[in-house]
Amino acid sequence: MLQQQFEQQWQTPFAWLADEWFLIAGWPLPPAAHYQDYPQLSNGVGTIRLFLEEFDLHAQQLPQRLPQPRHLSWVVGNTVEQAFAPLVARLNQIENLRLDLYALASDYWGQQMSVTGLLTGHDLIYHLKGKSLGDRLLLPSLMLKHDEPVFLDDVPLATVEEALEVPIQVVSGGAAGIIAACTPP
Questions:
Q1: DSSP label of 144
Q2: Which of 57, 60, 163, 173 sits at a 20 to 30 Å CA gap from 126?
Q3: Is the pLDDT of residue 39 over 60?
Q4: What's residue 106's pLDDT?
Q5: Beta strand extents in 117-167 (DSSP E only)
Q6: What is the mean pLDDT of the segment spanning 148-172?
């Protein structure tokens, strides 16, 4: 493998595959050490591994129960469904919390496998309209254009919120953001 050659020659893998490639192939994600200092994080390389590592760190402080019942839905691209299913199962162990994971493909782009950042307003409406999404729909901030409440297909966030008839909470901050959205103080 080329990475092994680069590792021997330059003490770095030099080139990394995006985490989604491992998940699509059905392989386990490399360990955190493989990503060194995550030099390609802005390109999505290592984001899933980092999310999982952060979740493990913050999961130690999860509450046993919430004071009031909450039913939330969380949207991600379907490439991360298997990686994130254990996180959802762990969050659902919290009494009074129900978190449903919606792992979607992109009908808009015509893809059977989708990364979260490429899901569009059209995809959300197409896949989620008429579903019981609970009290709130959690969307990762990377689904929106930078500094705009608009999806890649130019559908405004407000249009999706109206079509799905559920308040939408845009979540940033990785695993800590999802945990905070599910377990507010």
A1: B
A2: 173
A3: no
A4: 93
A5: 136-140
A6: 97
Q: Of 123, 130, 137, which is closest to residue 166 (Cα–Cα)?
A: 137
Q: At what angle do helices 174-182 and 47-59 cross, to 10 degrees?
A: 50
The two tokens of residue 144 are 């929106």
**What distance in Å separates the CA atoms of residue 29 and residue 35, rounded to the nearest whole number?**
11
Cα(20)–Cα(18) distance, rounded to whole angstroms?
5
User: Which among 116, 117, 125 is positioned nearest to 155, based on CA atoms?
Assistant: 125
Predicted TM-score of the model (pTM): 0.83
Q: Which uninterrupted H or E stretch holds 178?
A: helix 174-182
Q: Give the CA diameter of the chain.
A: 57
pLDDT of 11 > 80? The answer is: no
Q: What 3-state DSSP class applies to 155? A: coil
48 pLDDT band (50/70/90 cuts)? confident
Question: Any bridge partners for residue 92, and if so which?
Answer: none
* Helical (H) or strand (E) element with 161: helix 157-164
- Output the pLDDT for position 89: 97
Q: How many degrees, rounded to 5, is the angle at CA 110 between CA 170 and CA 123?
A: 30
Give dist(CA 136, CA 132) in Å, integer.
Answer: 10
What pLDDT sits at residue 130? 96
Q: Which amino acid is at 25?
A: A
Work out the percent of the chain whose per-residue pLDDT is above 90. 59
The answer to whether the CB of 116 falls within 8 A of the CB of 170 is no
Which stretch of DSSP H or E encloses residue 16?
none
